[in-house]
Amino acid sequence: MEISGRKKLILKAVIEDYVASAEPVSSKALQGRLDLGVSSATIRNEMSELTELGLLEQPHTSAGRVPTATGYRVYVNELMGQGDVSREEAAEIQQGFDAPSAGFEQMVADASKLTNKLTALPSYAMQTAHGAVTAQRFELVYVDDHTFIIVVLLSNKSVQNRLVTLPTTTKAETLTKLAALFNASFTGLAEPELTVERIAATERAAGDVNGVTAVIAGFVIEILMQTKAKRTVVSGATSLLGHPEFHDVERARRVLGYLANEQELLRLPAPDSDGVKIMIGPENLAEELRDSSVVVAKYDAGDNMQGIIGVVGPTRMDYGKVAARLSYIASGLANMLAMGSTLGSGEIAGGDLDE
Predict the structure, then answer these.
(1) CB 97 within 8 Å of CB 91
(2) How many domains does the chain have?
(3) Under 8 Å between Cβ of 333 and 157
(4) Could you tell me if 330 and 297 are in contact, meaning their C-beta atoms sit under 8 angstroms apart?
(5) What distance in Å separates the CA atoms of residue 279 and residue 257, rounded to the nearest whole number?
(6) Contact 108, 127 (CB under 8 A)
(7) End of a domain among 199, 228, 257?
(8) pLDDT tens string 287-323
(9) Quick check: 152 and 137 in contact, CB under 8 A?
(10) Which residues contact 74 (CB under 8 A, 6 or more apart)?
(11) Which of 56, 127, 248, 307 is the most exposed place for a label (fewest CB within 10 A)?
C-alpha cells in the first residue's frame, strides 16, 4: 500500500499515541506533537483519508481515530523502529535465568515468567525437537542387592533417573556389565530402534535371567516417547485483565480459555527462521485471537532441540519493544542451552542495548 510521507508520519504518531494512552487520538493533539507546518484541519483531512484506506477508524463520530489491524501491519512493516533493550532490562534478563544445571524445562519456564514480567503480557514457551531425542549415556547406580538407580543422559541435555526396587537379587557386578552393554547398544538410537530383538540380545549378553534388562529398556523407551511431545508453559495469563481491551469479560474469557488449552497453543505458528514473528488481529487463524496479537521468537537450543517463546495481548501493543525483549530473551536462552554458559558470566547476543 503506497501512502505519502506525511500520511506515514501521521499514522505512526496516531499508533504510538494510542499505544501509550489507549485513548482515540485527535488531529489537535497531533498538531501539537508533530512539526508538519500544517493546520489541524489538514491533519484531520489526512486522518480521514487514512480512515478511507482502512488504516484508521473512528469509534465514535466526535472521537479521534484509532489504528486498525491493517494500520498496525503497515506500522510494523514500514514505520516501526528497531526496539531497544535497556541496560537495566538486560541486567534483569541476565539475573532472571537459573544456571544451566537447573535443567532445560526449568530454564524454559523461567524464561516464560521473565517475559511476562518484562512485557506485562501473558507469555508462553514451547519446546520441541528438530529430530529424535536419543540416550547419550547410561549409569546404573548400585544401592543394595534389591535396589538400584537408572540414570540416563539424553541428547537434549536433560537427565532422567528412576529408583528401581526388585524382589530378586541384583549384584553390583551385573549392573556394571549392563551399563556397559546399554552404552554400547542403546545410545544414539531413536525410540523405534529400541526393538524387542535388541533388548533380548542385551539380556543374553548380560546373562540376565531376572528381567533387569527389560526394566532398564522399558524406562528408556518411556522417556524417549515422552520427549516426542511438545510441551508448553504459560505465565501470567491473568495479566491480560490489566489491559483495558480485556475489561470486557467475554472477550477476556475467550483468550484466557485459549491460553489454558495446550493443544491450541501448539498450533500457533513459529517464525520461519530465527527471529521474531508478529501476527496482528485477524492474521491469527484461531477465532479466539482475532482481536488480539501474538508476538513470538524462535530459538535453537542445540542438540536437535528448538523452541519458541511468545506473548499474547491486545493489538494495541508496543510491537518494537516487545519484539526486542523477546528476541533478547530467546537469544540468551539459546546461548545457555546450546553453549552451556550462564547469562551472568558473559554477554548475550540479542537486541540492541539502549544507552
Answers:
(1) no
(2) 3
(3) no
(4) yes
(5) 19
(6) yes
(7) 228
(8) 999 999 999 998 876 655 678 899 999 999 999 999 9
(9) yes
(10) 1, 3, 11, 55
(11) 248
